[in-house]
Amino acid sequence: MARTPLTPEDLADALTELHDWTGDVHGIHRRTQGIDFRAAAAHVLALADVADALDHHPDVEISYGTLTVHLLTHSVDAVTELDVEFARRADELLAAQSVGLDGA
Ligand SMILES: C[C@H](O)[C@H](O)[C@H]1CNC2=NC(N)=NC(=O)C2=N1
Fold first, then answer.
1. Distance (Å, rounded) from C-alpha 64 to C-alpha 17?
2. CA-to-CA distance for 38 and 21, rounded, in angstroms?
3. pLDDT, tens digit, for every residue of 82-102?
4. Which pLDDT belongs to residue 100?
5. 3 C-alpha vs ligand 1 centroid, how far in Å?
6. What sign results for the dihedral spanned by CA atoms 68, 38, 88, 50?
7. Which residues' Cβ are closer than 6 Å to ligand 1?
8. What distance in Å separates the CA atoms of residue 24 and residue 10, rounded to the nearest whole number?
9. Given its phi and psi angles, is residue 80 left (phi above 0), alpha (psi -120 to 50 degrees) or beta?
10. 7, 59, 86, 89: which is deepest, by most CB within 10 A?
């Protein structure tokens, strides 16, 4: 997958599908509130597998009740398709984890 900077228009299009993400060409992020601290840590551990699979690593913040994932392609200091793909996979994992917790 190319580490080519997305245009503002392409990024805007991508964000229409990534409902929980916001940002611009300087970076995108997803803030999840009301999340249990342990569930946030478990989600970050799952993100580590995605990061290694894509060779693309997020910056994450975990606070009491809040998890924030930041994405930027550092090598080009821009948002690329790698960031969008990571966001898609992160959302799938969070949705699956939430189902697991609710259905437990
Ligand atoms: C050598 C390795 O492929 C690079 O350093 C990768 C690692 N993970 C990365 N993650 C992110 N977010 N941006 C990068 O440019 C990047 N580069």
1. 28
2. 22
3. 999 999 999 999 999 987 554
4. 55
5. 10
6. positive
7. 55-57, 72-75
8. 11
9. beta
10. 86
Chain position carrying tokens 């805007």: 12
> Among the atoms of ligand 1, which is closest to the Cα of residue 73?
13
Whether ipTM tops 0.95, in short, is yes
DSSP code, position 73: B
Closest CA to 71 of 24, 37, 9: 24
The percent of residues above 70 in pLDDT, for the chain, comes to 94
- The three-class DSSP label of residue 27 is strand
In this prediction the pTM is 0.94
Q: Which of 6, 29, 56 to mutate to test the pocket of ligand 1 (most atoms within 8 A of CB)?
A: 56
Domains by residue range for the chain, with CATH: 8-103 (3.30.1360.20)
At 2 the pLDDT is 80
Q: How far apart are CA 78 and CA 94, in angstroms?
A: 24
